[in-house]
Write a structure and sequence with these properties.
6-stranded parallel sheet; alpha/beta; 3'-5' DNA helicase activity; globular; 5-stranded parallel sheet; about 600 residues
């Protein structure tokens, strides 16, 4: 069900009040709802106002004194913000989605064991350990494994197991009994299938909780998440406001996304939105995953030109809060310290998503173990390595562990991934995962079988593994930083939700699932409608929208991949023809003003 359409409000304040009135009506009518709040719309404000309404009338929404409203967030930072803005009221149970789900499902160990045995992602691990019945199932470090005394779950396991338990009517009733109202923040980041499991379980059941989703499906940029939610029990409420950006940026976003037009705040300035492209670059463009992109050296030169010699350089120089967002993987890899890894794998997803078992082991186990040893957290060290705490009766026992990790740390600083793997293979303190040991063994056997003049050409996984062994191990450490947390945008897209006065977006290739030029061209009226169904379209559109919507005042988009005529026309429509600028180059391929 969708709320009645209405014309866009005159300003953001009016649009916000209209959305809030519709939200309160759904809440009072005990209807499940979805608040669709585009970038800068003030989603958290609406969420907090809904919580305050519940707290003001607890007897209406929480009829029993032991009942609470659950507010589930995607991050601990968001959780803490909700707690602070509701004055830590005990009637509000604010937690991360994973924290809430684990609290709900952890008491049901027998059901969890059955769910694990039905899980495809656990099939191989459980086959290696047939006798696991009776082992405690835990979720603490977020690392998947079967140990002597317990089974440990990965973060991705929690929603998968919860989905299975939501099929149980008794489980659902127990949740409803404790939480008559459940709010889910950033709903688009909900793991795939979870929102549908909740809604299918409760639906429009008058005895079920009121479920409210707050988010924006155009800001879905994480893997294995649901994106848009469509269900017959949901009242859809658009919030047509933008409190963040100046008018030029809001206009650009509205052109990109006309289905959810936003009204700027009444006192918004004019701002700028400018597009720069490198179509006239005379050099030979890159191939493979970087097809159509200018060289890395030319990319850096264009970025320098943009900051110091372009029409936007005035506001860039004067900015006190400038953010450069990089949507080109080659640039990110160089900036963050893992330049070799993208060239090892045929798909960036193999290492960026830890699909390669060796990368997964080094990032999830070896690096955290080294860190735990360095910080003298030995209990965590032994848990990471998957064994009970070893007997350390004699000084020599401690010396064996200490000497080994001192050697491992030294090798990890100066050696290659192959050097570290050799050291891991040479010890008897703990076991390597079966998949890692198998990959090492298969490569050794394949190399021994080669003739004097033969090169290893197949299978691809062994070719990639051989190349991976030659990469400096320092790149694993840099990759871990990228995967876990960083201030650079594309490192887990960690600035989603953040805002900056002025933003430069460097747009290019290198990511397997992103093609921004093709996505933009697909918006041309004459383009084939099937282009919008391509796998890369939604991924590219969402990441582009998120990055372009971070700016408060000034936005500059620098394209270092080749743009088609259709893409140029679309950008001229979105930003204005006078604001789409072609960078001019000299014969050597340098921006002209830099070579002068």
């Amino acid at each position: 069900m969708t709320a009645p359409a209405s014309p866009v409000a005159d300003d953001a304040e009016q649009a916000s009040e209209e959305a809030l009135a519709a939200l309160f009506a759904a809440l009072d009518g005990r209807r499940n709802f979805k608040l669709e709040a585009g970038a800068g719309a003030g989603k958290t404000y609406s969420l907090v106002q809904a919580l305050r309404r519940i707290l003001k009338s607890k007897s209406v929404y929480l009829p029993r004194s032991d009942q609470r409203v659950a507010c589930l967030t995607y991050t601990k930072v968001a959780r803490d913000e909700i707690k602070a803005r509701t004055d830590e009221d005990p009637a509000v149970f604010a937690d991360t989605l994973h924290g809430f789900l684990w609290e709900m499902i952890s008491p049901y160990q027998k059901a969890l064991s059955a769910a694990l045995h039905a899980s495809e992602s656990w099939k191989d691990r459980l086959a290696e350990h047939p006798e696991v019945s009776g082992l405690a199932i835990e979720y603490d470090l977020g690392i998947r494994g079967v140990h002597d005394d317990r089974i440990t779950l990965h973060h991705n396991d929690i929603p998968e197991l919860a989905i299975q338990l939501f099929g149980n009517e008794k489980f659902r009733s127990l949740i409803t009994d404790r939480f008559p109202v459940i709010f889910i923040d950033e709903y688009q980041d909900t793991p795939s299938g979870l929102a549908e499991a909740v809604l299918s379980g409760y639906g429009a059941d008058p005895k079920g909780p009121v479920v409210g989703f707050f988010g924006d499906h155009w800001q879905q940029i994480y893997d294995r998440t649901c994106g848009s939610i469509v269900h017959s029990s949901l009242t859809s409420i658009p919030k047509n406001a933008n409190f963040r950006s100046d008018r030029s940026v809001v206009s650009f976003l509205n052109k990109l996304r006309p289905e959810l037009p936003q009204a700027p705040r009444a006192d918004a300035g004019e701002g700028t939105a400018t597009v720069y492209h490198s179509n006239s670059w005379p050099g030979v463009r890159q191939g493979r995953n970087w097809k159509g992109q200018i060289s890395q050296e030319a990319t850096q030169a264009c970025l320098e030109w943009l900051q110091h010699a372009s029409p936007s350089s005035t506001w860039i120089r004067d900015s006190g809060d400038l953010k450069i967002l990089m949507l080109t993987h080659a640039t990110i890899a160089n900036e963050l310290g893992y330049p070799s890894l993208p060239g090892v794998f045929g798909s960036n997803d193999a290492f960026a998503n830890k699909e390669d078992p060796v990368i997964e082991y080094l990032v999830d186990i070896v690096e955290p173990a080294i860190q735990a040893f360095s910080e003298h957290k030995y209990g965590e060290l032994f848990r990471l390595l998957g064994s009970k705490k070893p007997t350390l009766n004699a000084p020599k026992d401690k010396h064996r562990w200490s000497d080994y990790f001192d050697s491992l740390i030294s090798t990890s600083r100066a050696g290659t991934i192959g050097n570290v793997l050799d050291l891991l293979n040479s010890q008897s303190l703990f076991s390597l995962p079966t998949r890692v040991a198998k990959r090492e063994r298969e490569l050794k056997e394949a190399l021994l079988a080669l003739g004097p003049a033969e090169e290893l050409g197949e299978p691809r996984k062994l070719v990639e593994h051989r190349a991976l062994r030659s990469v400096p191990y320092a790149e694993v450490r840099a990759l871990r930083s990228y995967l876990e947390d960083s201030t650079v945008f594309s490192t887990k897209h960690s600035v989603k939700g953040a805002e900056f006065d002025d933003v430069i977006v460097l747009v290019g290739r290198g990511w397997t699932k992103y093609d921004f030029a093709k996505m933009i061209a697909a918006h041309a009226p004459q383009s084939n409608p099937e282009l919008r169904q391509a796998g890369s379209f939604q991924h590219s559109r969402n990441l582009f929208y998120v990055s372009a919507s971070r700016a408060k005042h000034n936005l500059a988009l620098l394209f270092v991949q080749e743009l088609s005529d259709d893409a140029i026309s679309v950008l001229e429509d979105w930003a204005g023809q006078e604001n789409v600028i072609s960078i001019e180059f000299d014969e050597a391929g340098a921006p002209r003003s830099l070579s002068a």
